[in-house]
Amino acid sequence: MAPAVEAAALEVLVEITLEAMQHVDHLGEAGGFERQAGVDGALARAASKGTVFGAFLDSTFDRLGEAAMLAAIGLVFAREGNDVALVAAFAAVIGSFLVSYTRAKAEALGLRGDVGFGSRVERVVLISVGLALAPWGWLQWPIYVLAAMAWITVIQRILFVRRQLREIAAS
């Protein structure tokens, strides 16, 4: 598949996700969020137009958009026969979900879970870098870094939660 076609396919996935998010906005459910990748929730909060349900939807659609992008990238790797990069794309999706889950679960337990260097912003930047490098055949390298970074962050968060629980138990 030609890089231009791959980029168009990825753009279609992004547009579908954005359209779904805008549809939710038209129903009034997302509290007037402006849908711009990586800044929509922050803009809504800064403008005091965010709602709790809007924040929930924002987070949910962030995961959906990230998964869609990584799945599309995985399809590119599958079509190219690049099995190692395909496995890395799967690992990136799973790791990315676990980064979010470990934070949410820690916070639900009343603990901090915001440690690590693989937050969504860093993951989106790496995906963007990968897409920018795709025409030269370098798409897989940022995905390898993303997968590793996500899993390192998951481990950091697990260990941080364990440390907090041990400190609570000791006091």
Put the structure in a nutshell.
It contains six helices and no strands. It has 171 residues and is mainly alpha-helical. Helix 1 (3-26) packs antiparallel against helix 3, helix 3 packs antiparallel against helix 4 and helix 5 runs antiparallel to helix 6.
If you had to describe this structure to a student in words, what would you say it looks like?
With 171 residues, the protein is mainly alpha-helical. Helices cover 77% and strands 0% of the residues. The chain has one domain (3-170): Four Helix Bundle (Hemerythrin (Met), subunit A), CATH 1.20.120. It is globular and about 55 Å long.
Could you name the CATH class?
Mainly Alpha
Helix and strand string, N-terminal first? HHHHHH
CATH architecture: Up-down Bundle
Terminal CA distance reads 60 Å
Sum up the overall morphology in one term: globular
The chain-level structural class is: mainly alpha
Largest sheet: none
Q: How many DSSP E strands?
A: 0
CATH topology: Four Helix Bundle (Hemerythrin (Met), subunit A)
**Helicity level:** over 70%
Overall average pLDDT:
80
Bin the strand percentage. under 5%
Please supply descriptive tags for the structure shown above.
about 170 residues, mainly alpha, Four Helix Bundle (Hemerythrin (Met), subunit A), about 75% helix
Give the arrangement of secondary structure elements.
Elements: H1 3-26, H2 40-46, H3 52-80, H4 83-108, H5 120-133, H6 140-170
Helix pairs in contact: 1-3, 3-4, 4-6, 5-6
